[in-house]
Amino acid sequence: MKFSLAHRSILKSAILVGVFASIVTPIRVLAGSDWTQWGGPQRDFMVEDSPKLADQWPKDGPPEKWSRKLGDGYATILVEGDRLYTMYRVENDEFTICLNAKTGETIWEHKNASPFTELMAQFGPGPSSTPLIVGDRIFSVGTNMLLTCFNKSDGKVQWSHNLPEEYGAEVPGRGYSSSPVAFENTIILPVGGEGQCLVAFNQADGAIVWKKHDFDITHSSPILIKNAGQT
User: Fold this and answer.
1) pLDDT category, 174, cuts 50, 70, 90?
2) How far apart are CA 77 and CA 35, in angstroms?
3) Which of 89, 98, 93, 118 is CA-nearest to residue 36?
4) Which residues neighbour 225 within 8 Å (Cβ) at sequence distance 6 or greater?
5) Which residue, 69, 87, 110, 226, has most beta carbons within 10 Å?
6) Which residues pair with 111 in a beta bridge?
7) Which residues contact 190 (CB under 8 A, 6 or more apart)?
8) Cβ neighbours of 58 (radius 10 Å)
9) What is the pLDDT of residues 207-218, one digit of tens each?
């Protein structure tokens, strides 16, 4: 199954620009903070005390340190120290990858099968979810709702859940897009279905800590808020 060349071009460009922007400025561009989840440190796409961006490029453009092609997808490129992490697709396979931010070389990469439908192809078949880095782990969710926990240093799988097969979750028509959020010793993400609109998984072993509500899921990502002194 193919999707349009226009989508291929847009998706590849988005990934390449993300890598390029990460390397034309210092690796630690976030004033001591890293970009380890969807939306940045507070999931609000804001960075406190960040350096001022350039008003314009040099005449010949910024110096290119390196570039490389990945694949298709909408996942954000995460930054932690001198490493970059993201997800992408090549045909019917999805990849979670860790790169050396200084050289662009692959440190580790994990592949899993993730076929896409005609409807997904109309909007670009993903992956659309952005991984989450917490401590020594990185968590990813693929287009077809395969949740995987990796050791972030070497990419070894620590645990995984096929959410449709194990919990009866229904893959959205355009593919899964929500990005997980961390809270205490859990990660929280929408799963959908009776009693499991939101599910909290233990970061260490993937066991369900709690699940709540009966709503179906959308393409939005959860955020943490405080209400009456509680998060």
Assistant:
1) confident
2) 8
3) 98
4) 231
5) 87
6) 95
7) 178, 197, 198, 199, 217, 218, 220, 222
8) 8
9) 999 999 888 888
